[in-house]
Write a structure and sequence with these properties.
Layout lengths: L2 H23 L15 H18 L7 H20 L1
Helix pairs in contact: 2-3
């Protein structure tokens, strides 16, 4: 399999993951309810990214596997980009 094909397949997988999570959680990242935490969507996404980076640095698979954390980070970075462009 070529690198180009791997990139395309990975991007498609991330797209499916983001759409699935958006359906599951609602549009909570880009339209936060602000029940407990206040802040803009951009600020709150940055907090989520910080939390994920901390989990990745801790390397504790009993919390989450590194690959799950990385996929979540990619998703949050995409959402951050969308938030910044709005």
């Amino acid at each position: 399999m070529t690198s180009e094909k791997k990139i395309k397949d990975t991007i498609k997988m991330i797209e499916k993951l983001l759409i699935s999570k958006n359906k599951q959680y609602g549009n909570s990242a880009l339209e936060p309810l602000g029940i407990f935490a206040n802040g803009s969507a951009e600020e709150l996404i940055r907090v989520r990214i910080d939390d994920k980076l901390n989990r990745l640095l801790q390397g504790d698979e009993s919390i989450e596997r590194d690959t799950d954390v990385i996929l979540d980070l990619i998703g949050y970075l995409v959402l951050l980009l969308i938030s910044m462009e709005e």
